[in-house]
Design a protein that fits this description.
By secondary structure, this protein is α/β, with parallel strands linked by helices. The protein is built from ten helices and six strands; from the N terminus they run E-H-H-H-H-H-E-H-E-H-H-E-H-E-E-H.
């Protein structure tokens, strides 16, 4: 059977408790644009890239701004917000788990829908940017989740095959992306997503608090067995 060689993490909501902040930022940006986006519609963008969200919003609300202008508007505001916000923290158990995985000799990567600049702001502010062998964004990959491209590119950049990776994700779009990349995927339960929306994952965990290298290997083996 294939052996586990790498662990790939989504960033927002999985490594860092930032998803509620992104949600608040987007409510501010929507108000600045003069549009009212329902909570139901807003949730469908969870885990996707900015171009995916704004392409849909531009059409739905007949916005006059170009897609490039909307993305630049979002990027400038979002980066400034996160550079100055207080209390940005890693999710419980993340720091110790990353060190344990690294000590075990596995490769690690981040595969995120955030922009490259946004990803580095968050990872550096939380002190974990140097832990990863690669940080890959959907902008690098050319397609937003749920397309599998960002996960396939992450595996390629760290020099492993897709079927030797285990992914931690928290959104339906992200889980679908990992599964489309033929990776074992573990859903991290968060307040942003209902458990019924992430049933495609191979397993679910409540947090990283009790997660260890040994339990990751067990989850990977179980996930490969059902494929």
């Amino acid at each position: 059977m294939k052996q586990l060689e790498a662990v790939i993490f989504d960033m927002d909501g999985v490594l860092i408790d930032s998803e509620p902040i992104h949600y608040t930022i987007e409510r501010i940006l929507f108000a600045e644009l003069g549009i009212s986006v329902s909570d139901e519609l807003h949730k469908t963008y969870l885990g996707t890239a900015g171009d995916f969200m704004y392409q849909d919003i531009k059409i739905r609300f007949n916005l006059s701004q170009s897609l490039d202008d909307l993305l630049e508007f979002d990027e400038q505001f979002r980066c400034s917000y996160f550079r100055n916000i207080e209390g940005l923290v890693l999710n419980e158990g993340v720091a110790s788990l990353l060190m344990e995985i690294k000590s075990a000799g596995l490769k690690m990567a981040v595969a995120t829908s955030s922009s490259p600049e946004m990803a580095m702001i968050l990872l550096e502010r939380c002190g974990i940017s140097a832990v990863f062998n690669a940080v890959v964004t959907t902008k690098d990959a050319g397609k937003s989740k749920p397309a599998p491209d960002v996960y396939r590119l992450a595996a390629q950049r760290i020099g492993v095959s897709s079927d030797s990776c285990l992914v931690f994700e928290d959104s339906p779009n992200g889980i679908l992306a990992a599964k489309n990349a033929e990776m074992v995927c573990v859903a991290v339960l968060t307040q942003s997503v209902d458990p019924s929306e992430i049933t495609l994952a191979d397993a679910q965990i409540n947090s990283f608090k009790d997660m260890t290298y040994s339990s990751i290997k067990t989850l990977y083996t179980a996930g490969r067995l059902v494929k």
